[in-house]
Amino acid sequence: MKRQDTTKQLKCRKCYKNPQEWQGYRKKKVNGVFVRVKDENGNDIKIYRAICTKCKMKQIDARHNGSYAKVLRTKVNKDYLDKYGLTKAQYDKEQSLKHNLPMLRFMYQGDTEKELTCMWSNDPLENIVLKNYKTGVEIVKVCIMDLHHMLVKDRCSVKKSGQEPSMIVGKGSLYNKQTKTIAELLRCIPITSTSHTQIHHINKNLDLDNYPDNIRPWAIRSKENFESFKEKYNYPLLDYDRLIKGLYHD
Questions:
Q1: How do the domains of the chain map onto residue ranges?
Q2: Phi/psi at 127 (5° precision)
Q3: How far is residue 165's CA from residue 167's CA, in Å, rounded to a whole number?
Q4: What's the pTM?
Q5: Backbone angles phi, psi at 146, to 5 degrees
Q6: pLDDT (tens digit per residue) in 151-164
Q7: Among 157, 184, 152, 179, which Cα is nearest to 168's?
């Protein structure tokens, strides 16, 4: 269906319910420069698509035998699987983890080069080799870890900011996150899934006193470490006393 040039927005020519969608202005080339075309009243002529977005998407879905978004996602994932052996979401998460690992290492261990280990069992958390027993193919995962909130109430983690730590570290860069997001990570420790289960069975209520000094994040073991972390990653609004207070039950 052809576009209609008009200065007035009309109804969709297909469903006659929704308004036509504005596409831009009609232009013509004058002395090598594109200028807007005027109507007899001197107004810019706007170009509207003859059908609305809803009807357009129905046509696209019909051409793809279903949801266009689903078909597109399947195609993109196939391209990523062929190239990297991962879906797009898995690839993006892995790239974010690679980017964020130096900061996480410094936060939890005080060294950007030392690979992360479970703070409960000391098992390695980086470069984990997994084997698919059906195909026999081995896959190396950049990092596999659970981030455990140290404050626990009735066997449930207490999230002060309401954010999920695994989503924080696996989506985007940590270097420009809000202060409250970094504070949330400072209240957690990286551990294995097995250790996570063990910790939650120690007691139904846990606070900072239940964790020995060597199991706490390096950045909060002392005020000097905390200030060093703040200065290195430029988070001046982080407050040590407030963060420590947040690791105890009210």
A1: 4-60, 93-245
A2: 50, 55
A3: 5
A4: 0.67
A5: -105, 140
A6: 888 877 776 666 78
A7: 184
